[in-house]
Amino acid sequence: MRVLGIETSCDETAASIVERDASGHATILSNIVRSQLEEHAPYGGVVPELAARAHVSHLDHIIARAAASAGIKLNELDAVAATAGPGLIGGVLVGLTTAKAIAAALGKPLIAVNHLEAHALTARLTDGIAFPYLMLLVSGGHSQFVLVRGVGDYQRWGTTIDDALGEAFDKVAKLLGLGNPGGPEVEKLASKGDPRRFNFPKPLLKEDRLDFSFSGLKTAVRLAAEQQAPLTDQDVADICASFQRTVAEIVATRARSALEKYAVELPGQPLRLVVAGGVAANQAIGAALREAADNAGATLIIPPIPLCTDNGAMVAWAGAERLALGAADPLDVAAKARWPLDSADMGLTHGA
Ligand code: ATP
Ligand code: MG
Ligand code: FE
Q1: Quick check: 334 and 84 in contact, CB under 8 A?
Q2: Domain spans of the chain?
Q3: CATH fit for domain 2-124+307-346, picks 3.90.25.10, 3.30.420.40, 3.40.50.2300, 3.40.50.720
């Protein structure tokens, strides 16, 4: 089956066509992403209204390019999938409404995809792994451990009680006067800095839970920056390196505990840790996670970075996984700004 996937929940306008064969093997036929970085650059962050307008301006063209690059016509599709939440509601509405129109015009099923489920199932698209597995989602809006038991079957084990990890990178970058998105900027400068110069706090880490807290750490970084002002290039690099070391240690410590819990609660199951979301691009965090996974005897899977950040292929794939199980959504399905993975309506609905 061939599924068109549309992603518009944040600042990427994306469309992709993915083919899933009867044995569950996936082929990405096309994957087109248009980032809105330039539109939002003057504001130092994503402006929801601007994002929605940019999706309106570009989505039709991005879908046409996805079809052309896959070499197929829209009427050769078996279903149309779009992110229906969570995300910036204006943007979600643009993508979901477009998907509804295409599905109605073609007379093909519509699949309303949870954006977090799309991130969660990406490792099956790229690595073909079986259920169950443990996912660490670390993105611009989320930081959570999720037990992935099956399509639509998720159990959240921990989440952030304040900022997401990507958000923390972005805020630290902003307060140091670096560009947006901040993650790659911080990582670049960190490579030139001393990771031991500053001792930043690790909020919540002593508590026996799988949650994160990054806002106090961000404040500590701000105070250190204020104390050192005016900052030399070396000061900035040292702050970036120390911040990155601290979050890598936090994430690795939590991953160790999550893998321990997994081993206890799912005895006999292979230990697999899948990383999803844009922060998966960070090499220092990746290395810390690899060490934690190796020590626990677990396999670490980090999909290729373009599939970790927002893209249409993960949405098309999540749609294909649902369709293969007979699920589809009615044309009046609602867009949702909030939609946790473990909410009751994540299960499979049948027949539009
Ligand atoms: P969500 O999926 O939660 O709605 P999102 O889709 O906006 O959020 P992603 O596109 O998955 O998030 O990831 C973007 C985030 O990843 C940004 O916060 C960015 O700073 C961060 N990021 C990207 N590259 C790196 C890196 N090399 N190191 C650290 N963080 C990074
Ligand atoms: Mg983004
Ligand atoms: Fe995302």
Answers
A1: yes
A2: 2-124+307-346, 131-302
A3: 3.30.420.40
